[in-house]
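> forwarded from #structure-qc
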């Protein structure tokens, strides 16, 4: 990477390798059995890092932010498994930042990035942050006929994600005996569900 002039890609990969090692050490310190081999012993993963990070860096140099996003998103998808979720989340966050720079698609990549960040926070149990991102996702897809790779309308996905998160939030509020807030959230969920049904 360095020989080919991709200093930014090398720095990012090196940082991820350090983080990988810290996670391994933390697991060993807690007497947990860490099944994953060191990153440097996994050439398939290193090859994917090299391929997509260098393509993203080359595109960024030219200002082709949509191509940067696509390459970072490809890495997020590649690492979308239980062992590597933290790597996936790293690239979701990178995609989110890059999506803010893409102006040629009417906000579609930004909407997708909001959805990914919502999922990231939902999985971490940070439901208020998840709801914020899903609300932005919903707002960006209003009146748009955008579809995902499987042919589903993004607005419908936004509605489903919001309803799910609002229900989880209301359950948490009910456990804390915050009945007024739970009712408000459930009303919002009902309105979003009705909107999704009308589509």
């Amino acid at each position: 990477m360095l020989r080919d002039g991709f200093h930014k890609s090398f720095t990012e990969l090196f940082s991820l390798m350090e983080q990988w090692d810290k996670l391994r050490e933390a697991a060993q310190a807690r007497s947990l059995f860490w099944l994953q081999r060191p990153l440097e012993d996994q050439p398939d993963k290193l090859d994917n890092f090299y391929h997509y990070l260098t393509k993203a860096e080359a595109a960024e140099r030219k200002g082709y932010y949509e191509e940067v996003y696509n390459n970072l998103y490809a890495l997020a998808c590649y690492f979308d498994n239980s062992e590597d979720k933290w790597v996936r989340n790293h690239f979701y966050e990178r995609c989110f930042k890059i999506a803010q720079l893409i102006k040629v698609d009417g906000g579609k990549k930004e909407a997708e990035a909001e959805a990914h960040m919502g999922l990231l926070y939902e999985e971490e149990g940070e439901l208020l942050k998840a709801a914020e991102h899903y609300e932005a996702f919903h707002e960006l897809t209003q009146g748009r006929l955008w579809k995902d790779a499987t042919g589903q309308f993004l607005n419908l996905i936004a509605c489903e994600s919001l309803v799910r998160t609002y229900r989880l939030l209301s359950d948490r509020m009910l456990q804390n005996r915050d009945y007024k807030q739970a009712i408000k959230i459930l009303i919002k969920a009902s309105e979003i569900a009705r909107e999704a049904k009308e589509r």
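QC bot note: The helical segments are 7-29, 43-62, 65-78, 85-99, 108-123, 127-141, 154-175, 179-198. The mean pLDDT is 89.
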